[in-house]
Specification:
The protein is built from 12 helices and 9 strands. The chain is an alpha/beta fold. Helix 5 links the parallel strand 3 and strand 4.
Length: about 280
């Protein structure tokens, strides 16, 4: 097995694709990680143990797969490209702890009886759907590590007052601890993408960081407030949220919570939005 690992490390994605007369498919968002240092950072971030079960989204030619398989109990490699999966199956044939799945991750279900983690170098155009999928799937992973566009990573970790703070920031932070592990340059990939990237770790929370009496109301307020982020939050809620709340009652709620009547959603923290939601509910 050691010689197999060494052989895979020495074969670059570019050489392997050329050998099989294949080209990266732009429609599938294929950008292969070629920086070994970044690969090692990913492995360290996953904190793989002998008992670990790891799901890999977009396993490609198996560059990360073999590093994970050498440490984990089991790897579930999900790859939508049949040709790449066939090549990686051949390259990784010495491993008996890899399950290969030839499917779109968004149409995949897992029957995993134990805790598991997820790693993915995903097409950037499906970043939000993949995150929402991983937050909703049952059973949920204990954590997932994704390679995503730098600007999206900054949105996901943004706090109130930031220009990139929005409803997605709150939605994800309500369910996860989100950390940017490292910013990654275009040169770490083949072919080079048009944007820089970030390695982001999402650790699922047992309980949300704020308590809300009605999650639907909470997220309705957030969605409306950020959809009309140029408007004062009172006006956005009273006109567009379809909650049947009189503006004068909202003004009373804002006054009770010591919130400026002219404040916009982007200036309120998750905690302040939760307090507003709970007061309106009461």
């Amino acid at each position: 097995m050691g010689s197999l690992i060494k052989a895979i490390k020495m074969v670059s994605s570019k050489e392997e694709l050329k050998k099989h007369n294949l080209h990266p498919q732009k429609k599938l968002g294929q950008n292969f990680l070629i920086d070994r240092n970044i690969a090692n950072i990913i492995i360290n971030t996953l904190n793989i143990k002998k008992s670990s079960v790891i799901v890999e989204i977009g396993s490609g030619l198996g560059e990360l797969t073999h590093l994970i398989a050498a440490k984990a109990k089991k790897v579930i490699a999900v790859e939508i490209d049949t040709k790449l999966l066939d090549i990686s199956k051949n390259l990784l044939s010495a491993y008996n702890n890899i399950e290969f799945i030839n499917k779109d991750i968004l149409k995949t279900s897992f029957n995993i009886p134990e805790t598991y983690k997820v790693i993915g170098n995903i097409p950037y155009y499906i970043t939000t759907p993949v995150i929402l999928f991983l937050l909703d799937i049952i059973p949920r992973p204990v954590l997932f590590v994704l390679m995503i566009q730098k600007e999206v990573a900054q949105r996901l970790t943004a706090k109130s007052g930031s220009k990139v703070y929005g409803s997605l920031s709150i939605f994800v932070q309500y369910r996860c601890k989100v950390e940017i592990i490292k910013y990654i340059k275009k040169t770490a990939f083949y072919p080079q993408p048009d944007v820089n990237s970030a390695l982001v770790k999402f650790t699922l929370l047992d309980e949300p960081p704020v308590k809300v009496k009605n999650e639907k109301l909470f997220f309705d307020i957030i969605q409306t407030g950020f959809m009309y982020r140029r408007k004062m939050l009172i006006n956005a809620i009273s006109r567009y949220a379809n909650l049947g709340i009189d503006k004068k009652e909202l003004e009373k709620a804002f006054k009770y919570l010591n919130l400026s009547p002219s404040i916009r959603a982007e200036k309120l923290s998750m905690s302040e939005l939760a307090d507003l939601s709970n007061h309106i509910k009461k």
